[in-house]
Amino acid sequence: MTNNEPVPDRDEDRFPCRRRPAHPAPVHRHNRPTILHVTVCTARRAEILARVDVHEGLRVAWSRTRQWLVGYYLVMPDHVHLFCAPGVHDPEHINDWLAYWKRLAGDELTGLRSAWQADGWDTQMRTQDHYMRKLEYVAENPVRKRLVARSEDWPYQGRLHTLPWIAG
Questions:
Q1: So where are the chain's domains?
Q2: Judging by DSSP bridges, how do beta strands 121-124 and 157-159 pair with one another?
Q3: Radius of gyration of the chain, Cα coordinates, nearest whole angstrom
Q4: 26: pLDDT confidence band, cut at 50, 70 and 90?
Q5: pLDDT digits over 61-105, tens only?
Q6: What is the distance between the alpha carbons of residues 55 and 108, in angstroms, rounded to a whole number?
Q7: Which of 115, 42, 122 has the alpha carbon at shortest distance from 77?
Q8: pTM of the model
Q9: What is the CATH number of domain 35-159?
């Protein structure tokens, strides 16, 4: 914009529409963990994930990866929420890791080979409070969708690794 052009008053006029999620590199802060909240959806939001075999297949795929370690996760019928932290000093880009475990899950269950949207959404946890609020929000997902009365009754959730927030 030049100085003579009017300033747009709506966000959609100022910013281009985002067609794909942004995946900024995680910010490494001294004495703070690097924990990401990731959401991955099925293609066309197909409700195919809330099954025992899929739950186990995802756990197997995630346990075979070392670049990022999965902490708490929740599998909904059409999407997955998970919290992850680097498992190595300089992990691969989160989008590459998502593609990797999706392929591993497809190797476990052929029905998952083409089940996923191409991308996923990730957000870095900024503070312990942010992390705790996001964990609570994710855990309540099946209750909000009226799939169970209490979040602890949802069978498709768990924790592979403990990802504590260590305040610095």
A1: 35-159
A2: unpaired
A3: 18
A4: low
A5: 999 999 999 999 999 999 999 999 999 999 999 999 999 999 999
A6: 11
A7: 42
A8: 0.83
A9: 3.30.70.1290
Residue 28 token pair:
């490494």
Q: Which residue type sits at 127?
A: T
Residues counted in the chain: 168
Cβ neighbours of residue 155 under 8 Å, at least 6 residues apart? Answer: 52, 55
pLDDT category at 167 given cuts 50, 70, 90 is low
Contact (CB, 8 A) for 142 and 74: yes
Cα–Cα distance for residue pair 154/49, rounded to 1 Å: 13
Cα three-residue angle 124-82-96, rounded to 5 degrees: 70
pLDDT at 31: 60
Which residue in the block uniquely carries the two structure tokens 């409070």?
A: 129
